Amino acid sequence: MDQVEQSKWKTLLKTNDFFGVFSDEELDQFLNVGHASRYRMHEYIVKENTQAKKFYVILKGKVDIVKEIAVKGKTQISSLEAGYVIGEIAMLLSEKRTATVIAGEETFVFSIEADEIVHLPVEMQAKLYRQLAVFLSKKLKSLSRASAEQLLGLSEWYLGDGKYGS
Predict the structure, then answer these.
(1) What is d(CA 35, CA 56) in angstroms, rounded to the nearest whole number?
(2) If DSSP codes are grouped into helix, strand and coil, which group holds residue 131?
(3) pLDDT tens, position by position, 123-134
(4) Whose CA is closest to 24, among 37, 7, 40?
(5) The domain that contains 50 carries what CATH number?
(6) How many structural domains compose the chain?
(7) Could you list the residue range(s) of the whole structural domain that residue 38 is in?
(8) How confident is the model over 75-102, as pLDDT tens digits?
(9) Packing angle, helices 3-14 and 24-33, rounded to 10
(10) Is the pTM above the cut of 0.85?
């Protein structure tokens, strides 16, 4: 990647919440070990049931999450936009992907393979894993709230104190 190209990708990284805690020097190091990719609409980013080796951060664009369901076939279960992290659970657990991810429009993503993370300085590894923990926690909180609302038919669900909203 030439310097102009690297500068463009660095700008996308800087404006993303996931990478916002990293310095310019650290972003340069990410660009040296990670992979910046552009996907056209309908291009596959991740395929269900393939082995996970990396996680992705959506920098710009939108992706559709598709799941193969026995009775229905391929079913879109969600759409995610810039700022979301995908594939992190399967990568961390060294498991197969549980869904397919397809670009819903022109989409720019940054990915890092698990094997490349160990080449980063220890401080950066710690920051990276902390960011993954923060984003996973937000995802879990959102899913817990949505599950509670769906199962209990509530308009609001307050996690933590267990009180129901109005």
Answers:
(1) 9
(2) helix
(3) 999 999 999 999
(4) 7
(5) 2.60.120.10
(6) 1
(7) 3-139
(8) 888 899 999 999 999 999 999 999 999 9
(9) 120
(10) no
